Amino acid sequence: MVRLSMYASGKYSSRGPALIPRMKTKHRIYYITLFSVVLLGLIATGMFQFWPHSIESTADWGLDRRSVHDAPLVRLPVSNPIPERGDLSCRMHTCFDVYRCGYNPKNRIKVYIYPLQRFVDEVGVPISSTGLSREYNDLLSAISDSEFYTDDVTRACLFVPSIDVLNQNSLRIRETAQALAMLPRWDKGMNHLLFNMLPGGPPDYNTALDVPRDRALLAGGGFSTWTYRQGYDVSIPVYSPLSADVELPERQPGPRRFFILSSQTAIHREYRAELERLKEENGEALLLLDKCSNLSQGAASARKRCYKGQVFDYPQILQESSFCVVLRGARLGQATLSDVLQAGCVPVILADSYILPFSEVLDWKRASVVIPEEKLPEMYTILKSIPHRQVEEMQRQARWFWDAYFSSMKAIGMTTLQIINDRIYPYAARTYEQWNNPPLVKWSSVNSPLFLPLIPPRSPGFTAVVLTYDRIESLFRVITEISKVPSLAKLLVVWNNQNKSPPEDSLWPKIAVPLKVVRTKENKLSNRFFPYDEIETEAVLAIDDDIIMLTSDELQFGYEVWREFSDRLVGYPGRLHLWDHEMGKWKYESEWTNEVSMVLTGAAFYHKYFNYLYTYKMPGDIKNWVDAHMNCEDIAMNFLVANITGKAPIKVTPRKKFKCPECTAIDGLSLDQTHMVERYVLHRACSSPSNSRNDRSASTSLRRCSAPCP
Question: Rounded to an integer, what distance in angstroms lies between the CA atom of residue 440 and that of residue 5?
């Protein structure tokens, strides 16, 4: 071996093996240059071929880059086809091709805006007397600046014409319909969206756009129950130009100078006569305004209202009233509604069959009072019966509705597109709370388990949340056993003792997954259900610090069961509540039986979404009762999940009977003599006799529990 080593050493020089001939310098430069050119070519080809579709035309839609006068002129022959009148039977599953939208990680539709064109008839007369209005320009510009927009027509799910049909009064009906039919992707209006705020015309004033439009969706500002295609069309507000010209500072809710105010000028004489009669009966509580006859017509007079020679600034005067009347005019939709909401005045809407704006997602009962037109004589009595606190909440909600959904053409357009987006991607749709509650709580970090996701959660496995006080030895045994579960992603210890610090880091068990200790500010049982930021998994295992009898394979099996039923509570110890016919009241059973109506959260899997609901949406009286008595948080969670999902929990049976002979703690909450009594009392207070089946959804029970539990 020594001789071989020496021989090899002799055949190598400092320039490499002597057996390999040296390449001439000019040949080496040639090959290096050739290799570099080929490599750069491959890189450039790959970037061009596989780069995302963002290599598109940079000429986004917008009047900033293109003037209406520079748009190409298109002549409409008289013989051009006319679309059919809107199909009243259209629904999303019959007249909309959802397959155009496809699946994308952002769950967002793509909207294409047709290029600007000037349509004229054979003799050169435009199809519209106003061209492109400022409002429609603002709308299209907002769409083009949004995340919905695409300028690649092949990727579009929804098509928006650049033909302005906001105001039917300015349109030539036949020619406008012909222009729509000429659009390259019209296809009988499939997946096309038209915006119209002022439909119909004299003398009948139809409540939907009269322009024949085939199967196109209509975002309309004056729908009635006869013309509105529920789940297909979108009811939008009539935009008020004053929104852009007049800024009203938000006013704190509370009593106002006037109780009822009417500010509309062109209302039917019968309605005005009835309002004048109410004015005579109730005096200064009602202010009845009309247009000012002594002022010249113009923009200035539109911002004034008068009553017997007194001149008031409009819409500022609306802020001086608790309730503001919104009566139907020639059209059902009135811009007055937007002005009233901006003023924080509760609208009193008297327009039979009117489809309120965005009523598909907005809860108008929280921001308005809707009264049948025949009940106008009783309006004052009806409004007087509303509690002051509720009036203040409605004033606050009315202003928030305006800020979020009515304040600009951009707000109206984005809300419309979001509603359509929610229909196409229902699993990613906004919730009732997100549409109707001011954004005090960030829900973006959690997904609802009530719809199956198309993509896996951010972090697989589950997070174990252990609520503890000071049982260190038992806690460490629980941590050690849980750490053996293959699907454990993180272990979170909620330290509920404010008078004692948790053990030092060196004393905690050494485990393979992250272990985080969270110290609470108050000793409350509800802390176990708080939506901690450290919980990144969808699945949560709530477990007590003395549950040491469950093995790692039993916990793993429970997690696998939860994965198949992610919208339910999946737990081990079961309990039963049932109606005792002899006693005439609810009974709580902790003994082992063959019937189960709930599982205890001392060892249970659930979706972290329910942490948010428990913390932010649970009726406050229930949480206060639980924290005051240090009991029944598991009962409250069972009622919450059952009420939301309408589904019973799932019990997983361990190998051993779920008893705790190893538990020697004498200070446990469940060992208190009053523990079972309180649980029995809470069940009796929070249950309804009408629900006597063991698989009840507990919706009635949860409503009963919103009252203070004894």
Answer: 77
Nearest to 527 by CA among 449, 473, 468: 468
Which residue has 């007087």 as its token pair? 384
pLDDT digits (tens, 9 = 90+) for 624-633: 888 888 888 8
Entry field: residues in the chain:
710
Token pair of 556 as six digits: 């793993």
Catalogue the E-assigned strands of 340-484.
346-350, 369-370, 459-468
Average of per-residue pLDDT across 366-387: 96
Query: Do the bridges between strand 234-235 and strand 217-220 make them parallel or antiparallel, or are there none, so unpaired?
Result: parallel
Q: From CA 682, how far away is CA 625, in angstroms rounded? A: 9
Could you tell me which of 355, 289, 365 has the C-alpha nearest to residue 324? 289
Distance of CA 535 to the CA centre of its chain: 22
Binned at pLDDT 50, 70 and 90, residue 243 comes out as: confident
Structure tokens at 634: 């598991």
Under the phi-then-psi rule, with left for phi > 0, alpha for psi from -120 to 50, and beta for the rest, what region is 445? alpha
Residue with tokens 């049932």: 578
Q: Which residue has the tokens 């025949």?
A: 374
Query: In the numeric block, which tokens belong to residue 243?
Result: 């929104």
Rounded to 10 deg, the angle between the 633-645 and 620-629 helix axes is 160
Residue 700 parent element (H or E): helix 699-704
CA torsion 372→376→380→383, rounded to 10°? Answer: 10
Q: Any idea what DSSP says for residue 404?
A: I
Q: What six digits make up the tokens of 440?
A: 């005090």
At 109, give phi and psi (nearest 5°): -70, 155
Q: What is the dihedral of CA 228, 230, 231, 235, to 10 degrees?
A: 40
The Cα–Cα gap between 121 and 173 comes to: 12
pTM: 0.62
Q: Could you tell me the CA-to-CA distances from 610 to 24, 446, 567, 645, 698 in Å, in that order?
A: 74, 10, 9, 11, 16
Percent of the chain whose predicted confidence (pLDDT) is above 90 = 56
- Give start and end residues of each alpha helix (H) in 442-511: 472-482
> Please, are residues 357 and 219 in contact by the beta-carbon 8 Å criterion?
no
The rounded distance, in Å, linking the Cα atoms of 576 and 588 is 6
Q: In this predicted model, what pLDDT tens digit does every residue of 387-408 receive, in sequence order? A: 999 999 999 999 999 999 999 9
| Residue pLDDT, tens place only, 311-361 | 999 999 999 999 999 999 889 999 999 999 999 999 999 999 999 999 999
Contact in structure between 685 and 679 (CB atoms under 8 Å): no
Residue with tokens 């040949």: 27
**How many other β-carbons are positioned within 10 Å of the β-carbon of residue 522?**
9
Collapsing DSSP to helix, strand or coil, 482 comes out as: helix
Number of neighbours of residue 563 by Cβ within 10 angstroms: 14
* Integer Cα distance of 449 and 644 in angstroms: 11
| Coil/strand/helix, residue 528 | helix
CA distance 429 to 422: 4
Q: Tell me the average pLDDT across 424-440.
A: 86
> Do 679 and 581 touch, CB atoms closer than 8 A?
no
How wide is the angle at C-alpha 557 spanned by C-alphas 554 and 561, nearest 5°?
140
DSSP state of 386: S
Other residues' Cβ atoms within 10 Å of the Cβ of residue 441: 14
Cα separation of 46 and 50, whole Å? 6
Residue with tokens 């003994």: 591
Rg (CA), the chain: 34
pLDDT at 592: 65
At residue 611's C-alpha, the angle toward residues 610 and 615, to 5°, is 115
Task: State the pairing for strand pair 73-76/118-121.
Answer: parallel
121 within 8 A of 76, measured Cβ to Cβ: yes
- Cα angle: 578, vertex 582, 585; to 5 degrees: 45
pLDDT grade for 453, boundaries at 50, 70 and 90: low
